[in-house]
Model the fold of this input.
Amino acid sequence: MLDETFKQAKNKTVGLKQTQRALEKGLVRRVYVAKDAESQVLRPIIEWCSTHDVEHLEVPTMKDLGKACGIEVGTAVAAVLKD
Done:
């Protein structure tokens, strides 16, 4: 489940493209991925996190992750950025 770190974070990304850009720039502290998202969408993000030592946590559903991000639709990926 989502922890308080994500819910209270001021700087975060929502969605695949924004999260990928932030990862490439080295701005990400922690990534959240939805378990029910398509594996081909998540694979590059999870591999990037593994090779660059970025923590990634699973969230049960895309809907849960979207709701935590404050959006009406689900999202496969979100991230908390470094301060």
The beta strands are 12-14, 28-34, 55-59, 77-81. The chain has a mean pLDDT of 91.
